[in-house]
Amino acid sequence: MSDNSRRKFIKQLGSTAALIGAGSLSGLAADPAKQYIIQPTKHNVSPNDKIRIAGIGMGIMGFGDVSTALKVPGVELVAVADLYDGHLEKAKTVYGNHIFTTRDYREVLERKDVDAVIIATPDHWHDTQAIAAMEKGKAVYCEKPMVQQIEEGHKVIAAQKRTKMVLQVGSQRVSSIALAEARKRYLAGDIGQLNMVEAKMDRHSALGAWQYSIPPDASPKTIDFDTFLKDTAKLPFDPVRFFRWRNYKAYGTGVPGDLFVHLITGLHFMTGSKGPERIFASGNLVQWKDGRDVPDVMVAVFDYPATKEHPAFQMTLRVNFADGSGGGEYTRLIGTEGVLEMGWNDFKLKQHKVPKAPGYGGWDTYNTFTKAQQEEYVKQYNAKYSAADQAEHKPEESVYKAPAGYDDRYDHFVNFFESIRNGKPVVEDATFGLRAAGPALAVNESYFKKKVINWDPENMRII
């Protein structure tokens, strides 16, 4: 899309943001930045059209997802499945003794009163449970990454097409009103031509590095560890692997599948990209040497080719779980005329255009000219460039925020349930899910094999 076309496009898009005043913006220029509150979309949801859900996997994400889903009018929880008895007991405490609980997710899928399932199990179970649920006529909300292995993603896509069931991947950022507004600003050409994306998600705590708490009653009696292992290597009971499964490549997807996938998902939503063509990763296990076999420091570089949707650009993603500065995160889309810096449900826009005239003096060969040559140079310069061409463009800064209390995960579930009720397309179906997960999983391939990965973004396969 040309710059001129982008500027015309923004007039058609309009804006959902309301200007609320000015204030300082730390880290940018001293001048005040305009601040906007982005207005959420009003959802007209009928509570009379009941949707009955079940949770499969009731860990951190399972409880979070189910609790958020139940805030949507007309949604009821009827069953949960988990391999740890304590999670089942907790579910009854939180949601009521009336709910059905089981260790076997297949019993949930056999229930006629379950319309949709929320899958929040370890990554190596996602494809099996999602496909089984769709084949049983259940709509599926599957946590990110959609799959643990790339080939599994193609099987999930095929199952969704075959069964015609709704499947939404749970990377809720794509439903954020802040991301939608940032997409408008990007498509309008507010940062010029995109040329680089850089993002980081750094942490400096044990919990941030996935050293989650283990309940005192964890034992072979309270946990079905053999089922947890699925088709991975058979091992003696180990509660550390069960509760901290993200630390092991047999069950999880490490930093790329847990964190990079969020960043890739948001980028693809904003730019319309189908993915990169080359991927390279490097990293190390620095601090959390607790038995894990995935790195706690990782950097990945992605080369995105020029397409009809976007120009060629490079993306660098970084995660550091041993960040002595205290951690922090951002995603920056850097263009020739500005930068979009994404938070979670907010972003900053800084526009800074380069004058058409190159200028002279300062750190420049102009100062080495003789006086006569300097005078002649200035004469030629002023003849070539008008005053407007020579004018410095003052940086302009704006801050966009969702209202206090806004929850993008709620909006993501609203989209999911609307699709079940009236056939509205989900924002993140199985194909979108693999386009985001595939490059993230290819990062692991690059890291462990120590080589550049060539990726086919159209067919979503390693070349």
TrEMBL record:
Q: Where is the Gfo/Idh/MocA-like oxidoreductase N-terminal domain?
A: 51-170
Q: Which UniProt keywords apply?
A: Oxidoreductase, Signal
Q: Which SUPFAM superfamilies match?
A: Glyceraldehyde-3-phosphate dehydrogenase-like, C-terminal domain (SSF55347), NAD(P)-binding Rossmann-fold domains (SSF51735)
Q: Which PROSITE patterns match?
A: TAT
GO MF terms, alphabetically ordered: nucleotide binding; oxidoreductase activity
Where in the sequence is the signal peptide annotated?
Answer: 1-29
Q: What is this protein called?
A: Tat (Twin-arginine translocation) pathway signal sequence
Q: Which InterPro entries match?
A: Gfo/Idh/MocA-like_OxRdtase_N, Gfo/Idh/MocA_oxidrdct_glycsds, NAD(P)-bd_dom_sf, TAT_signal, TAT_signal_bac_arc
Offer one Pfam family short name for this entry: GFO_IDH_MocA
